[in-house]
Design brief:
binds zinc ion, 3 strands, three-stranded antiparallel beta sheet, 49% helix, 2 helices
Length: 90
């Protein structure tokens, strides 16, 4: 994830982003930033995701059982992490 001010990459699992509280501080420029959900990206991406789960989930479940729900969870988690962006906190 890129800092909106200094363009430095802040790791998604870095200490700075995993602090408690809504507002985080960029470790490079000390700007107060906030993690926001990119709604447009979420809406555009969720439609194929729903179709995917309708058409792929049933055969997957019968084939892999529990493993497929873990897989869907991982896909959803990756997808949500991609839809997150950093915004400067005024
Ligand atoms: Zn920064």
């Amino acid at each position: 994830m890129k800092c909106p001010v200094c363009e430095n990459n802040i790791g998604f699992f870095s200490k700075a982003l995993n602090k408690w509280g809504k507002y985080k501080t960029c470790p490079y420029c000390q700007t107060k930033i906030e993690v926001a959900i990119n709604l447009k990206f979420l809406v555009i991406g969720i439609i194929p995701l729903i179709f995917f789960s309708i058409f792929a989930l049933n055969p997957l479940v019968s084939k892999f059982g529990m493993f497929s729900s873990v897989l869907i969870g991982i896909i959803a988690g990756v997808f949500i992490s991609f839809s997150l962006k950093l915004e400067k906190q005024e």
